[in-house]
Fold:
Amino acid sequence: MAITATTNVGDVSLNADKVSYDLVETDVDIITSGRRRIPAHSGILASASRVLTNIMEKPRKIHGGSSKRVIKILGVPCDAVSVFVRFLYSPSSLTEKEMKTYGIHLLALSHVYVVTQLKQRCTKGVGESVTVENVVDVLQLARLCDAPDLFLKCMRLIQSKFKTVEQTEGWKFLQEHDPFLELDILQFIDEAESRKKRRRRHRREQNLYMQLSEAMECIEHICTEGCTLVGPSCNLDNNNKSTSQVKTGPCSAFSTCYGLQLLIRHFAVCKKRVDGKGCVRCKRMIQLLRLHSSVCDDQSESCRVPLCRQFKKRGEKDKKMVEETKWKVLVRRVASAKAMSSLSQSKKNKSEVLFKEEAEDFIRIRNKLI
Structure:
């Protein structure tokens, strides 16, 4: 399909596969490394690249009596230069095969001659074809051509496949000739590993806070409603038997709740705790009860969790404990996790209600239509 482009030198008829100059005589010769001459129009070249515009504005040198201006594009294959020139005329003419074959060379040319559209396509095309074998070479080119997206992609590939990249010729050449880039790569890998460790530690901490938040909810649930093994003291008679006629089933967080019930039962009968000899499980239970008192919002002293009021009064009196700072951080983060859990549960309940209402409306409308 023929395309007509209007420039300051007239009309040029372009073909999607081959440039043809039917109406205007060429006034520029592009010379490649293989001494090939590629005829072109100065108006087209100048409109596509400001670097070529500056070249056009320089005084013309006469070569062998020819009136044509000569532009030398050396250091890349002749066919790559041909593809580059054709792109300046028709950007849609660049094929995937040409990108795969000459992508690196076109990236260099697009950077030197500031052809932004071609540089964007080359950055994407070269990034899709980068491999472990050529990643070091592409990385160096991306740095020279100021292609940050491609540079970052190469860095991440090296970081993920570093053991394999170390065995390539490109890496060995880099070690001998560019130690500063090698240092940058090693620092990037070290920082990436540090970030990964921080993320893992953060996820572990968040999981711990969520588990503690769930434990706080389970303690309140056990002490107010009761669960399978343990219930509030008001539901027991003088013989410690349940007065409720309805058997309590497992709750939604039964795995956590069941562990807490076993811990509470141990805490109630542990002789070591009574004798003052110390018990690891009892100490853990006391810490959980103290944490509950720190996050408990009940100010009316009606909380039914054991030792809640005692710990609150003790905390008001003793403000200078050794672990006060760490404990405050723990309390704040557990409270935050509890709030986030409550918020997500509230949203979930609202969405379930809305879905139920929509389903009922749909059924009602369908029944009317029937």
User: Anything to note?
Assistant: The chain has a mean pLDDT of 78. The radius of gyration is 38 Å.
